[in-house]
Amino acid sequence: MPSFICETCGVEYAESAEPPERCAICEDERQYVGLNGQRWITAEKLRADHCADVREEEPGLLGIGIRPEFAIGQRALLHGGVLWDCVPLLDDETVAAVEAHGGLRAIALSHPHYYSAISEWSLRFDVPVYVHADDERWLQRRDGQIELWQGETLELGSGLTVIRCGGHFAGACVLHSGELLLTGDTIQVIPDRAFVSFMYSYPNLIPLDAAGIRRIVAAVEPFAFDRIYGAWWGRVVRSDAKAAVRRSAARYVEAIGG
């Protein structure tokens, strides 16, 4: 049976003879059902119409996206053998790129909008997928090595730490490694890359409250980092990123009167 992928959010569902009736991710207030209604594509059709977009972001950090852009349009990041976030496409070109970069030992996620094809990736590479237990309800396909974790941090070895920040989702996380902070859109790198932002919903423009902002800042404060990589190509704070988080939070809280 085919695996169906939501064309709006890019999340893959369990194999079924017919498309699911609804996408729980898109019906949540943080996402949306497209103007043309709920639409699906099979994984096979996606591979036929799209290809891998693989780029070196910096030495040791590989970006993996999709051409042409699909669904939310994020790109994943491969660093230290860990895939941070995921994309719906998995083809032979992507597998070859991952193996050429040293292979894959684990997958970790920022939040449910980027769960995409985590089970497919887990099965292909025979690796665990770490999902914070607070976001378990959003898992739409559970085969592969899905491992739920709890608490505030998860050590992945080789100096990589997943940090739960909350905010966008209860289990929303970032990944820390040396001078790098990989944030998905738990901490959103905006076009003015001297700042970042924080939202409950980005497409529907629902802000976070002041307590949520302060919690995110407090979660990353113990960690030193100089660069932030967000969820899309070019969304990078290339220096002084920790200060950017602090001043952005202060600006945001002031703007909402918190």
Summarize the structure in words.
By secondary structure, this protein is of the alpha+beta class. It has one domain (4-255): Metallo-beta-lactamase, Chain A, CATH 3.60.15.10. It is built from six helices and 19 strands. It has helices spanning 24-27, 43-49, 92-100, 118-125, 210-220, 241-255; strands at residues 4-6, 40-42, 51-58, 61-67, 76-79, 82-84, 106-108, 128-132, 145-149, 153-157, 160-164, 173-177, 180-184, 188-189, 196-197, 199-201, 206-207, 227-230, 236-237. The strands form five sheets. The chain has a seven-stranded mixed sheet. The longest helix is centred in the last third of the chain and has 15 residues, at 241-255. The model has no long low-confidence stretch (mean pLDDT 97).
